[in-house]
Amino acid sequence: MRKGDQAPPDQIPLEELISAQGYRWMAGVDEAGRGPLAGPVVAGAVIFRPGDKIPGVRDSKLLTHLQREKLYQIITARALSWGVGIVGPRDIEKHNILQATLRAMKAAVMSLNPLPDFILIDGINRISIDLPQQAVKRGDAQHPCIAAASIVAKVTRDRLMMEYHRIYPRYNFASHKGYPTKKHREAIRQHGCCEIHRRTFKGVREYLRVGDGEQQEGPRL
């Protein structure tokens, strides 16, 4: 391409295309916790100031625990705005995991100040909110604001699950964070489910017992 030529639209970064339309405050949105058998689904939303880039920010699944914690501190200190949305097991059972995830994403966006004027969402589903938006498949691997949101969501959820480990130590939530590991499944078979298990999920519903899910003191879900 010769000097002065414009790049084809499909080669221009999406953020630049969106900014060229006059949007200023772009929020990335992502979730953590769709697959576990226990605990909430948590969404993160992050708005960076134009041009601000944090080295090392990428899809939270590609980072170690210590890397995520360090980047979480940097993101929450430097972002123009950030927020989380949390939807617990009872609402997941009531609305299904997809709808619960979208509700968490909406709550995360609505907690931002200022509100964004455009939203980039990881995945293929839009949020029921009256704001311009675009869903991007594998967006956490392509867009820093979405990757940052994935880190905020993951760290927030992991911290919640550490709290629940102290309340329900027999399930060892500190280790697997509610995901369906072999040891977690064995604990459910042995002890039944607790208040934070998703009782409509396969791997839990087969082992429900009388009295399972009785409320114990802890973060409300």
Topology:
Elements: H1 14-20, E1 26-32, E2 41-47, H2 65-78, E3 81-87, H3 89-95, H4 97-110, E4 118-122, E5 133-136, H5 144-167, H6 173-176, H7 182-191
Parallel strand pairs: 1-4, 4-5
Antiparallel strand pairs: 1-2, 2-3
Count the helices. How many?
Answer: 7
> Which percent bin holds the helix content?
25-40%
Q: What is the molecular shape? A: elongated
Across the major sheet, the strand order is 3-2-1-4-5
Helix/strand/pairing class, anyone?
alpha/beta
* End-to-end CA span: 55 Å
Strand content: 5-15%
CATH superfamily of the domain at 17-168: Ribonuclease H-like superfamily/Ribonuclease H
Folded structure, characterized:
- The structure is a single chain.
- The chain is an alpha/beta fold and about 220 residues long.
- The protein has a domain at about 15-170: Ribonuclease H-like superfamily/Ribonuclease H (Nucleotidyltransferase, domain 5, 2-Layer Sandwich), CATH 3.30.420.
- Helix content is about 35%, strand content about 15%.
- The chain has helices at about 15-20, 65-80, 90-95, 95-110, 145-165, 175, 180-190; strands at about 25-30, 40-45, 80-85, 120, 135.
- Strands 3-2-1-4-5 form a 5-stranded mixed beta sheet.
- Helix 2 crosses helix 5 (about 145-165) and helix 3 packs across helix 4 (about 95-110).
- The chain is elongated, with a radius of gyration of 19 Å.
- Mean pLDDT is about 90; it is low at about 1-10 and about 215-220.
